[in-house]
Each structure stands twice: as structure tokens, then as C-alpha cells.
Write a structure and sequence with these properties.
The complex is a heterotrimer of chains A (about 270), B (about 425) and C (about 300). Chain A has 13 helices and no strands. Chain A is mainly α and about 270 residues long. The chains are: A mainly alpha (about 270), B alpha/beta (about 425), C mainly alpha (about 300).
């Protein structure tokens, strides 16, 4: 029924894609050739492409251990985000006394630059006895305000009638969240998972300050090895960055289908 | 050598006798050491730590390494939390800030008790770690500025050898600049660019350190010339805005005639520039033989629970044996004269180009500049440097830039008085 | 008569009790998140607030300072420059959001290969900021960078543009790099919001003869309001979260051209060891962001821009 020409869309998206890809291609190219990016003129194709840098990354640092730490921390952060944010988002999509205070509070919590919170956050984590631990690394990121609002927006879109019907049927609020709201908010869950994962996976400053023992380091901290002045080749650096990028990308690819619309059955929406 | 091993054996013997009683009193003593970006020395340090532990049974060593920009954040958080690493490797002038605030242990009493230790080091480099008459660090390794030059580009421009004066330097730079090629690049962090001013007779501060002394006609003239050369392409603009990867990368790409950097740049540049060998790269002193050192030293944190043990550790790490090993694996000058002379002699035969670079580090150590033992060095840099950028990049003329800088610096110094 | 009123009263009481019980439950739902924010955001803000009225350094005891630090800020040229730059960064957010909105709509359309497009646009976001910073530094390089090289090839300019060496071009260049990286983030938020719009609304409107543009203005845009508000807040917070990019790409230079409040806070605290001054700047920055959000919330219609779907 909606007949509109497809090709302008493709054209626009191809252009956008090109712009987005060019820098990324250069990262990829340098990671397989290790050439000096300041060479002139810039070469489009990699010279002497090899996977040496990727191998180098794997052996130069305890990659497996760092990877495990990052996975553990991110898993805790993602789980925390999905559960806590859904709860908070649900609460905020209802009216109750003090709701606006909470909203304002949440918004203002976002306005704090992390750099200014490093020292008190460290002291607090120390008091909790969580230094140098997975939970300590994950805890500050177990709930994020943006993701709470994503859930809230999604829950706001669910018709009241549905929730009221569920309440009349005797479902507890808890069950309403998990059995009614969440299945209707797949996109919001996917967003939470992706964002929480990326933020905890790429987080550099907090693990830097917080971990002391060598086997609790997370993956981005391994970056330091490649920025030491004797081995500061952008080849190894970029190979490392591409390897760190891979899991987040994979997760996004898996979550893609949640963004495909139109699969909602008639009884649930509208 | 023989006396040393005898002493060591005696010490080891004594410590083994003392150990059982000590061990009964305390299970383990732990030393934590924080180093600045030398994680690649893992193998060497593993053996050295093992040796130290063998000589001091019951000691555990925790080794932490952080990259330069991250180390201060980490270290200061640890200080606030009350768990600072016992030993910390510091670069540049940040130590003065910590020393002035009482964060570092004064090593002078230790040095007075054991005069042999001070004798190991090049006196000029050791003096770099003195603040208000007290020594706070032992030299770990040194790197000061030199002039690298691209012999191929020099030949193409018809230039015989490195410049002998400021004027020649700018003139050569001009000659080599065309299209994407530029003639001169300098690093700018940690005051590394300062020799360019010092060779024109410019002083930063008055001898008592209370007033700015750089707003003088020679300084204005030098700065104006630098700005002119930057505008015409003789001096690469990255000199004024780059940090590490860009300036070194640019020189390594073979499009810059001269690089004014410290010895640490050599290895990065060599890694990125396949054209580099002893026929194509030269290492020389800048005109006037002035250089800015950006050295590393070992300090002991005030909050350390084992300062005496920490002292024996840094004494050990800077001993002839360890310093020689470090020189060999890192090809860097250690300021330990025995290690450096031996190391250089070997390096001459194996890697003459690296040796020529490192040889510049042993020369003219009486002409070190760009290091002012001031606790507010970072603030001073922050006040001065932006005006230099303003002038060099053509935003302000040299006269205005320097008077503005003088105003800000004097205000800063007045507050600190 | 009495019994009806009685039953009504007891039922009313029951409803009230039920309501308060539910409200209590909501507070319990909020508790874990509130606790985390209390520990890691609220207490640190209070710490900064208290610290901004003291003279303190990691090795000395605290002494009261009154408003000294704030007074210093008034005369601090760097602070005002950083503030100005931060405002510019915040003001540039709507542009990025507009572009992302366009992309989100395109990517959401019923075309072949939209998964691929979506992934490509998103690719930049999970890439580590160090890599982004170094690559864009190179791209903007005056002599050997890609942008100048292409411009010269296509004969667009006769002299190379000194992007990161120029006092006028440095901040826009950083903003471009930042927008490139954050586009994926905006897109994901907007896509999620687009999912909340029932397909049937569009279908019904189309049947009624409404054109695409009309549908966009009347259906999509209003229902997208919560996501747009969120995107704007994210864009505003970008002036905080872009610390890594600015710090690695230009370090705040040349001069102070790219210094933003968050890099200044970091430098004051961890490079110059003046945590008390850094705390004062933090408090001012916090107030600024709060004011902007409050204004934005008002503009978006209050209640955090929540759309009414009744």
C-alpha cells in the first residue's frame, strides 16, 4: 500500500554508511599492516597485510584472563541493568507521591562527571570491601539512568487497560513486570543490554583506579601494554581495539532482530 | 667487584640468621612498586625481584605499572585511601609537587649513611632530584633532548651537517620545506622545547624563582622567528599541538628534516620508519649544547610501612648489576656511570646508530635546562605554554604573547609566595 | 442507608491502603537503583560540594576556605574559556540528533539490507575512544591527513586547512569526531523510541489519506518525544562523556581552544593536584547542566517529556 521509491533511501544510507565507514576502515587497515598512518601519500590498500598484530596482542598480554574479567564484570553489569532498570522504569511509569522528586533526582545524578567522582567512589568501594573484585568493578554501572528512561518510555506506551486487567486478574506488580511488560519491551531490553555491555566493556578509568592485582585487570587496561613507548605501533594498538570491539558488535548483531518492528500481535497493542 | 659480593654474602648471611626471629614476629613484609610505563620489562624484573626476595626472605613484591597520563590519577587515589605504593617511579617534574606536600621520604639521611650509593651516579643527573637541599629520588633512567636529522633530506637540500646556531637551524628548516615536507619538529611536553629559547639566552624565571624573566627582547625575537618559520612551513605545526604519536610519526614518515626530541623517541621512530639506518639518520646536539632532561627516578612514599626495606630495594634496582641489565634490555641511559659506560661500549659494536643516540645523553650534562624544582610546575606550564602556542601559531604577535604570559605567570607566582 | 455508606467507606479505605501499599512497592522497586546512585553519584557530589569550600590536598588536613575557590573561578580565564567551549559542545548536540533521527527513520524503513546499514552506522560507538581519537587526529592533519588530501585531490582548496592547529577549527573538528562516534548511540535510542509507536496508527492514518510528512509530524514526532528528550539529555551530557576523546585528540589545545569543563576538572585535580579547585568547577558545571535540563524539560512539556498514550 505504501508505494514510495526505495532508491533515494538506499542512496542516503549508502552515503551515510560510507562516511561512517571510512575512519573505521582505516583502523582496520592499519591493524593488518601496521604501517605508519602519517606516511604520505596515504595508501588506500594495506601494504603487506598480515595478522601478526592480532597474534601479538594475544600473546603479549594475558588476553584470556583479561577477557574473562571483562566478561564477568560486563555480565554482572548487564544483568543488574536489566533487572534494576526495569523495576525502576516500571515504578516511574506510574504516579505516586514523590515521583517527580525521584525523576529530578535521577536526572541530576547524570550531571556528575565521572572524573570528579573517582576519589570518593574509590573510598566508598574500599569501605564496602569490594576493591579488586568483579562486583566492585561492576557495581557503579549496575544501573544507568538513561536505560531506566528507555524502559520507562517503553512501559509508558503499554496501554493502561492491559495492566489494569492483569491487576484484576490478581497478578502481583512483580509478575506484571516480568510477564506482561517485558515481553512487550523487547527493543528496550535489547537497548539496555547493548548499552550496558558497551559501557562496562569499554570502561577504562574505573578499572584503572580500582584494580591492583594483575589478574583482575580488564581488557581495556591491557591497552597500556601497546602504548608503552617501545611498542607504540598503531598496528598493534588498532589490532587490540578491533579485538575489544568484536564482542560488542556481536551482541549488537544478535540484538538486531529486536529492532525489527511489526511483529506485535493485535491483541497486545492498540 | 669482589668486595661487593663479599658484602652481599655477609648481608645475606646476616639476614638468614635474623630471619627466623623476624619471621616469627611478622609473617610477610610486602613491598609494592609502581612503575611508569615499562610493562615490557616483565622478564627482567621477574628475575631481579626474585634475586631481591632471595636476599631478603619473607618479602613479597607487588609490581604495578601504569601509563604516564594514568599514573598520577592512580597514585593520588591511593594516597587518599592511605595505601600508597611503597616505591614509585616518577617522570619529569611531578615529584616536586609531591615532595613539597610531604608525600615523599627524604632520602638524604640514607645517602649520608651510605656515601657509596651517591657515587654511582652522574652528579648532574642526581642533582636533578634535589628540592630545597634534600634529595628525594634515585635516578632510574634518563632521557634528554637531542637533534635527530634526516640525512637524506639534508643531502637533497645540499646541507652538509647539523646546524650550529639558531639561525642556521631555522635556515636549514626553511630550505628543506616544500609541499608536504617540513624542516623541523619539536616535542613540547615536559618543557622539552625549552632549549630553543635557552640557546638564545632566555631565562624563564628570576634566580629566586619569584618573577617571570622571559619577557626580554631576545625572547621576543626568538619567538617571532619561530612563528615566522611555522607560518612558512619550515617548522611543522605539530610542534606546537602534538604530543607523542603525531610528531614522532611525522618524523618517522620521512617528511620532516629535523626532530628535536629526547632519546626515548629513537625507538618509536625506528619502529615506524623502515628507512632509518645509520646512513639516513643522524644524532647531534642542538646548537649551544643545551638539553632538557625528562628523567625517571625512584621515590619512596611517605605512607610506606617499610621505608628501610624500600630503600634497600631502590638501592638494589639502581645498583651496577641491575642498571647494566636494564641498559641492555632497554637500551636507555641509567645515570649509573658504570652501567652506562659498559653498556655504551657494547652497544657501539652491536647497534652503532642507537649508541650514537645514547652517547648524546652522556655529553654536556652540565648544560641541562628546562627543569625548575617548583611544586607548581604543572600550573606554570599551563600558564606559559598556551601563550607560546598563541604566538607560534600566529594568533598573537610574539610581543603580546610574552607580555600576556608574563602577566599570568607573575600572578601565579605572587599567589604562591 | 448507613450500610451503603459504611461499605463505601471501607472500600475507600481499602483502596487507599492498597494505593499506599502499591506506592511502597514502587519505592522498593526504585531502591536498588537509588542505592547505586546514592553511593556513586550523590555522595560524590556532596563530597565535591563540601570540598569546594575547603583548602585540601591528599596529604594535608582540610581548612575552611569560604568562597575563595569560587572567587578564583571568576578571575580564571581558563574557566571562562572552558565554559564557553562546553556551551558550544552542548549547542551542537541538536545537529547530531537531527542527523541521527533522519538515519533512524531511514534505517527503520522497509528496505532490503537495513540490518547491514544499521550495523554500519552503529559500528563507531563501541570502538574504543583511543582508536577514534588517533584516527581522527590523523584525518584532520594538515599535511598528510585524509581530509586535506581528498580536498586537494578534488581541487576544493588551494591551501591545506590546519584543522587541529587552528584556534577556530579545532573545536568544530573535535565536535565532528565526537558526533561521528556518538551517532550510533543516538540512533539506538531513537530506534527504540520508534518501536514504541504502534504500527497500526500509521496504517490507519495512511488509509485516511495522510501523506508521509504529515504522518511524521502528527504521529511519529509527538510519540517520539520521550526519546528525543532523552537524546537531547545524552547530547548535553556528551560534554561530560567526551572527556576521553578531547583529552586524547587535542589535550585541550591549541591554547585553550578545545578545553572543556570536564578536561579542566581532570587537569586541576589529577595533573595540578588542586582537588579543591576542581571541586568548585564540578559544582558549577553540575549546576549548569541541571539548569539546562530543567529548561529542556519545561520546553518538552514537563514530566520528562512523557507522551500521553490514552
Amino acid at each position: 500500500m505504501n508505494r514510495y521509491p526505495r532508491w533515494p533511501i538506499h542512496f542516503a544510507l549508502l552515503l551515510a554508511g560510507f562516511v561512517m565507514l571510512v575512519p573505521f576502515y582505516w583502523v582496520l587497515k592499519t591493524s593488518v599492516s601496521g604501517e605508519n598512518i602519517y606516511a604520505y601519500p596515504p595508501s588506500i590498500l594495506p601494504a603487506r597485510a598480515n595478522l601478526f598484530y592480532y597474534v601479538d596482542v594475544w600473546y603479549a598480554i594475558p588476553f584470556a584472563r583479561y577477557f574473562l574479567n571483562s566478561v564477568a564484570v560486563s555480565a554482572i553489569a548487564v544483568a543488574g541493568n536489566v533487572v534494576f532498570n526495569a523495576m525502576a522504569g516500571y515504578a516511574l511509569s506510574h504516579g505516586f507521591r514523590g515521583k517527580n522528586v525521584v525523576l529530578v533526582l535521577f536526572l541530576s545524578c547524570m550531571m556528575v562527571p565521572f572524573q570528579a567522582t573517582i576519589i570518593p567512589a574509590y573510598l566508598i568501594t574500599g569501605k564496602l570491601g569490594l576493591l579488586d573484585s568483579w562486583l566492585g568493578l561492576a557495581l557503579p554501572q549496575c544501573s544507568t539512568i538513561i536505560c531506566i528512561f528507555v524502559f520507562k518510555a517503553s512501559f509508558d506506551a503499554v496501554p493502561r487497560s492491559l495492566i489494569d486487567a492483569a491487576r484484576i486478574d490478581g497478578l502481583s506488580e512483580w509478575r506484571i513486570i516480568w510477564h506482561i511488560m517485558m515481553p512487550l519491551s523487547k527493543a528496550a531490553i535489547a537497548t539496555n543490554v547493548i548499552l550496558a555491555f558497551i559501557w562496562s566493556w569499554n570502561n577504562f578509568l574505573w578499572p584503572l583506579i580500582m584494580t591492583r592485582s594483575a589478574d583482575m585487570q580488564t581488557l581495556p587496561l591491557g591497552l597500556a601494554r601497546f602504548l608503552s613507548y617501545q611498542e607504540d605501533t598503531t598496528g598493534a594498538l588498532y589490532a587490540f581495539c578491533v579485538m575489544v570491539l568484536a564482542p560488542g558488535l556481536l551482541l549488537f548483531l544478535l540484538a538486531q532482530k529486536e529492532f525489527i518492528r511489526g511483529l506485535t500481535s493485535g491483541a497486545t497493542k492498540g | 667487584m669482589k668486595r661487593r659480593s663479599l658484602v652481599k654474602a655477609a648481608l645475606a648471611g646476616a639476614s638468614t640468621l635474623a630471619a627466623p626471629a623476624y619471621l616469627r614476629a611478622q609473617s610477610t613484609r610486602k613491598l609494592s612498586i609502581l612503575t611508569w610505563n615499562i610493562a615490557d620489562q616483565q622478564e627482567l624484573f621477574k628475575t631481579e625481584f626474585a634475586d631481591f626476595k632471595a636476599a631478603n626472605p619473607g618479602v613479597e613484591i607487588e609490581w604495578l605499572d601504569k601509563k604516564g597520563p594514568d599514573l598520577p590519577a592512580f597514585y593520588q587515589t591511593q594516597i587518599v585511601a592511605g595505601t600508597p605504593p611503597d616505591i614509585v617511579d616518577l617522570q619529569g617534574a611531578i615529584w616536586v609537587d609531591y615532595a613539597a606536600k610531604g608525600g615523599l621520604v627524604d632520602l638524604t639521611p640514607y645517602l649520608q649513611k651510605e656515601p657509596d650509593v651517591a657515587k654511582r651516579f652522574n652528579a648532574d643527573y642526581l642533582n636533578g632530584w634535589v628540592y630545597q637541599g634534600k634529595t628525594y629520588l634515585l635516578p632510574f633512567y634518563v632521557a634528554k633532548t637531542l637533534l635527530y636529522y634526516n640525512k637524506t633530506m639534508f643531502k637533497e637540500a645540499g646541507l652538509a651537517g647539523p646546524p650550529q646556531s639558531f639561525g642556521e637551524l631555522l635556515g636549514f628548516a626553511e630550505k628543506m620545506a616544500k609541499a608536504e615536507k617540513t624542516g623541523f619538529l619539536t616535542l613540547n611536553f615536559d618543557w622539552l622545547y625549552w632549549p630553543l629559547f635557552k640557546m638564545n639566552g632566555v631565562e624563564l624565571l628570576s634566580p629566586d624563582g619569584k618573577k617571570a624573566a622571559f619577557n626580554t627582547p631576545p625572547a621576543i625575537d626568538a619567538l617571532a622567528q619561530l612563528a615566522k618559520a611555522t607560518a612558512s612551513g619550515g617548522i611543522n605545526k605539530i610542534s606546537w599541538t602534538g604530543r607523542w604519536v603525531e610528531p614522532n610519526g611525522a618524523f618517522a614518515s620521512g617528511t620532516v628534516g629535523m626532530l628535536h626530541a629526547h632519546s626515548a623517541s629513537y625507538f618509536f621512530v625506528k619502529g615506524q620508519g623502515p628507512w632509518i639506518n645509520d646512513q639516513t639518520l643522524g644524532a647531534a646536539q642542538v646548537p649551544g649544547f643545551w638539553s632538557t632532561p625528562t628523567n625517571h627516578g625512584f621515590a619512596i612514599s611517605k605512607g610506606s610501612k617499610n621505608p628501610d626495606l624500600a630503600w634497600s630495594f631502590i638501592k638494589y634496582m639502581t645498583s651496577d648489576k641491575c642498571a647494566s641489565a636494564f641498559f641492555k634490555t632497554r637500551s636507555v641511559l641509567t645515570a649509573n656511570t658504570v652501567a652506562d659506560t659498559e653498556g655504551l661500549a657494547t652497544l657501539e659494536k652491536t647497534e652503532p646508530l642507537a649508541a650514537s643516540v645514547l652517547r648524546t645523553q652522556t655529553e654536556h650534562t652540565d648544560k641541562l635546562t628546562g627543569n625548575w624544582p617548583l611544586p607548581y610546575d604543572a600550573e606554570l606550564k599551563d600558564a606559559f605554554w598556551p601563550e607560546i602556542q598563541n604566538a607560534a601559531l600566529g594568533r598573537k604577535d610574539a610581543k603580546t604573547a610574552l607580555s600576556d604570559a608574563e602577566r599570568v605567570v607573575n600572578r601565579l607566582l605572587a599567589r604562591k609566595a | 442507608m448507613a450500610t451503603v455508606i459504611d461499605t463505601a467507606r471501607t472500600r475507600a479505605k481499602g483502596v487507599v491502603r492498597h494505593k499506599t501499599r502499591r506506592a511502597l512497592l514502587f519505592w522498593c522497586f526504585l531502591a536498588p537503583s537509588l542505592l547505586i546512585f546514592l553511593l556513586y553519584r550523590i555522595i560524590p557530589v556532596v563530597w565535591n560540594l563540601v570540598l569546594s569550600f575547603q583548602y585540601w590536598s591528599p596529604l594535608k588536613a582540610a581548612e575552611p576556605a569560604g568562597f575563595d575557590h569560587y572567587e578564583d573561578l571568576l578571575y580564571d580565564e581558563v574557566f571562562w574559556q572552558a565554559l564557553w567551549n562546553t556551551l558550544i559542545v552542548i549547542a551542537s548536540a541538536p545537529l547530531g540528533i537531527a542527523v541521527a533521527l533522519g538515519l533512524a527513520l531511514l534505517v527503520n524503513a522497509d528496505i532490503r539490507g537495513r540490518d547491514v546499514y544499521r550495523t554500519i552506522i552503529f559500528l563507531s560507538y563501541p570502538l574504543m575512544t583511543v582508536a577514534v581519537a588517533i584516527i581522527w587526529r590523523w584525518m584532520f592533519d594538515e599535511r598528510v591527513g585524509l581530509i586535506n588530501y581528498t580536498a586537494r585531490l578534488l581541487d576544493l582548496v588551494d591551501k591545506p586547512i590546519p584543522f587541529l592547529n587552528s584556534f577556530t577549527w579545532a573545536l568544530p573538528s573535535v565536535i565532528v569526531a565526537n558526533t561521528w562516534q556518538i551517532l550510533g548511540f543516538y540512533m539506538i535510542i531513537l530506534l527504540t523510541g520508534l518501536q514504541n509507536i504502534p504500527h497500526e496508527l500509521h496504517e490507519a492514518a495512511a488509509i485516511d489519506g495522510a501523506g508521509a510528512v504529515h504522518r511524521f509530524r502528527r504521529i511519529t514526532l509527538p510519540l517520539l518525544r520521550p526519546s528525543l528528550f532523552l537524546a537531547f539529555v545524552i547530547g548535553m551530557l556528551n560534554s561530560i562523556t567526551s572527556f576521553d576523546l578531547v583529552y586524547v585528540m587535542t589535550g585541550g589545545g591549541p591554547g585553550r581552544a578545545t578545553e572543556i569543563l570536564v578536561t579542566y576538572i581532570y587537569k586541576l585535580g589529577f595533573v595540578q593536584t588542586k582537588f579543591d579547585d576542581a571541586a568548585a568547577v564540578t559544582v558549577v558545571f553540575f549546576a549548569l547542566l541541571l539548569a539546562t535540563t530543567w529548561a529542556a524539560n519545561r520546553l518538552a512539556g514537563g514530566n520528562v517529556g512523557a507522551a500521553e498514550t490514552e
